[in-house]
Amino acid sequence: MNTQLTEIKNRLPKMVIMMAGQAVESGIRAYRKAEEEASKQVNLRDSGKPYNFTLRHAYYDSVGVAASVLWRIFWSCEADCQSAIEKVAESTGSYYGYPEKRFDEFVVALGERLGGNIRVRETY
Q1: Domain membership flag for residue 50
Q2: How many domains is the chain built from?
Q3: Confidence (pLDDT) at 102
């Protein structure tokens, strides 16, 4: 296990880790639904049928909601958290996993996004 990940998990309360894991999981589900909807609408567009990407944007907004929860735990910005969620969503094959595992994957992805410098807020 990554030493920085271990340090973060030792520093955060278990409940915060569980909540963050659930936020990551929700973000992954929203990202996948947005991608499915985008693919569906592209197929409609390419076949000359009426199409509408509104639902795709609505799903994708939910990824931002999950990211807004996570950046309050980590010293980063919402865009970094959103990119980390997207990276985890693209690298995992299933919708559902264990929230703690998703938390670990998210922290690793966030660390890559931030150049390895992840900081945790002292108050939540």
Answers
A1: yes
A2: 1
A3: 87
The answer, as to whether pTM is greater than 0.90, is: no
Where the chain has pLDDT below 70, the residues are 1, 93-97, 99, 123-124
Range of the domain at 79: 3-113
Residue 99 falls inside a structural domain: yes
The pLDDT, as a whole number, for residue 99 is 65
- Residue 120, strand partner residues: 74
Could you write out the DSSP letters of every residue in the chain? --HHHHHHHHHS-HHHHHHHHHHHHHHHHHHHHHHHHHHHHHHHHHTTS----HHHHHHHHHHHHHHHHHTTTBTS-HHHHHHHHHHHHHH--SS---HHHHHHHHHHHHHHHTTT---B-S--
Is residue 121 a part of any domain in this protein?
Answer: no
> Using one digit for the tens of pLDDT, what is the confidence trace for 7-28?
999 999 999 999 999 999 999 9
Q: Rounded to an integer, what distance in angstroms lies between the CA atom of residue 67 and that of residue 79?
A: 7
Distance CA 72, CA 93 (A): 27
Contacts of 79 (CB under 8 A, 6+ apart): 67
